[in-house]
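Worked example 4.2. Below are the chains of a multi-component assembly; read each line carefully before continuing.
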Amino acid sequence: METTTDAAGDHLVQRFRLAEAPFEIAPLRAALLDARAGAYAGFEGWVRDHNDGRGVHGLRYQAYAALAQAEGERILAEALERFAIVNARCVHRVGELAIGELAVWVGVSAAHREAAFAACRFVIDEVKARVPIWKHERYADGAADWLHPDDQPR
Amino acid sequence: METTTDAAGDHLVQRFRLAEAPFEIAPLRAALLDARAGAYAGFEGWVRDHNDGRGVHGLRYQAYAALAQAEGERILAEALERFAIVNARCVHRVGELAIGELAVWVGVSAAHREAAFAACRFVIDEVKARVPIWKHERYADGAADWLHPDDQPR
Amino acid sequence: MDRAATDTVTVLYFASLRDAAGVASESLPAQGDLRALYTALRGRYGFALPIERLRVAVDGAFARWDDPVRAGSEVAFIPPVSGG
Amino acid sequence: MDRAATDTVTVLYFASLRDAAGVASESLPAQGDLRALYTALRGRYGFALPIERLRVAVDGAFARWDDPVRAGSEVAFIPPVSGG
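Applying the procedure described above to all four chains together yields the following structure tokens:
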């Protein structure tokens, strides 16, 4: 992945990325392989054919890209601080997605499985709660809507 | 994957498998893709270069294949009963493995992430606790040993 | 976006706010605080979301509703997110 | 393995038990219960693991130590497992 530079001029690895087109998981997972790591936990969010009992034909994600990137990086940095993990990455799609397409991917490597699972769960929970990305669903009945869940902001 | 036949003659999907050679994750993951599933949780166990502070050069897994297969299938059937998941699979390597090789893979698809994570964790925990597979480690200092953890059997 | 102007603020709209406003962004006079700005725009465009359900960001970082609207800045109203 | 014999049992060894026994399996007279069988073999081969740390399986299914050793069956002693 590319690198960014922080205010102090240090080169930082880019751990969070917005993808405008379908992306491959294999190279992302491969970048997490490490001789120190005995455990890898991964999460993928896929576009389902229904939501709350309503048929879904497709969807679109819109992001406030600058803030989404910054907030995503913050979440992955927090995961690395909080959990005994080796590495973590997340990629989130934006744009039009069809049923069955990959919407979000999280990968975490760690010495032990406990931390790998906990950090992976933390990252996807925080991304869903904090990163400025919005889902627009098109329904089987012809309707379409932006999803603005009730429990936000927190 | 192949199918097995239970006592009543029903054809059952084989969800657990022992692999004598390196295996590809991509087709296993692809088999879990489902339009009903919005979430996928995966776990991989890799061979680390150390264990309890000791340098590890490589390892070998030995299995009681007949019972390992039966017990592995039981664990995946239990996961499908206990959690609201769509599908689950597990493959465990046997034989010689080098540092960084994949030792075990678990994949779970579900409508929601909560169940996907919980079931994935359940499967790897139960496989490690119950399936008759033994690890033989070769250490940097030339020693080698079978691992028989203290907290077994439970 | 007119970031060069010293007396205006650029406002970004997302999701249902963008649909209601009919534009992705616009340049507006910089005056009052962020709360007053959203309240005025909600009145103009009929945004469904009350301010309690939004967050607000200025120049790409989260901000407080009491912060003044700074001329030359970029303000984004953040509806409840639904990524993942 | 001599599964056809009606008066013998096939015993399978794994991991440290296999190393200590020097064989993966052997055919032995079928007598007593599974507990007595392991105790006798532990005496013969010097297995480090006490019976409390093992499980036992007969014909591919977990069994009880009090079960009799059935002629023609396949007995496996299961040391603490370490897969994953």
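Take a moment to check your reading of the output against the notes. The radius of gyration of chain C is 12 Å. The interface with chain A takes residues 12, 14-16, 18-19, 49, 53-55, 57, 60-62, 76, 78-84 of chain C (CB under 8 Å).
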